[in-house]
Amino acid sequence: MGMKTSAVIADGTFPTNTAPILGPIPEAVRQAAEAGYDAVSVTVCRPGEVDMSALQRACREHHIAVSGLATGRIYTVDGLCLGAGDEENRLAAVQRMLSYAELCARLDGAKLIVGTIRGWTRDAGGREAYVRQFRRSMEAIVARAEALGVEVVLEAISSIDSDAYCTIAETAEYVRSFRSSALRLQLDSIHLHTNGELDFYPKILALKGLVGQVDISDVDRMAPDGAHFDFPLLIQALKEIGYRDYLVFEFRAQPPAGAARAGLDYIRTLL
């Protein structure tokens, strides 16, 4: 079995350049299935924002899975941060993530994504305090994920989105320090580009067994077409480490028209 594909979806009630499929959740699921995706990844912020029962019904109807819950809006909208120096804020962020871990368990293997919700070291007043606070948060989340059988993925994030755990090496070292099968590494093509890690091939070869998700997005959050980023090399590296998990398509809905299908069609030529 090869790599699986998933499209980020959003309900269209907020501006986003990371969801190639927009609209009411049942309709977005239908579009993803018709485009040929194996799964959808859902952007969440607050409990109750997404009708999970409707999501599950739509997924059953269209024979499609939920690959994960993206949680960045918990930080960008509500300001909750897993590394916050303010303990009330940090605990609220952890509680929100624990509630979504429960939903991931209900969604039969959906991953819990730790991306922008990590915040910046300035949220704790400096790196030393941040590292301590973020570790406390991640330990609580990983422990609950282990109990639930849920996988948490920590994204090697762009340096324009955070100053903590950005590079492949730094993030991989952090993930390994937990010694937990419930915590794995998430890669993202646009973050590799933004961070200047275009020498990613040998670095990925050192990640066998550690990668839990790979996001696909071209430069400027466009659909991948091979003209701006070396997707053939990325896919080759993933094949060499035996990666069989989700490629999550995370880019703007247009241009071009039908970006979700166009991006998928291109990446399929490499699989």
| Strand order of the biggest β-sheet | 1-3-4-5-6-7-8-9
What portion of the residues fall into strands of 2 or more residues?
15-25%
Low-confidence stretches at least 5 residues in length (pLDDT < 50)?
Answer: none
What is the makeup of the main sheet?
Answer: 8 strands, parallel, barrel
Would you write up a description of this structure?
With 271 residues, this protein is of the alpha/beta class. Helix content is 41%, strand content 16%. The chain is built from ten helices and nine strands. The chain has an eight-stranded parallel barrel with strand order 1-3-4-5-6-7-8-9, surrounded by six helices. The longest helix is centred in the middle third of the chain and has 22 residues, at 127-148. The radius of gyration is 17 Å and the shape is globular. The protein starts with a strand and ends with a helix.
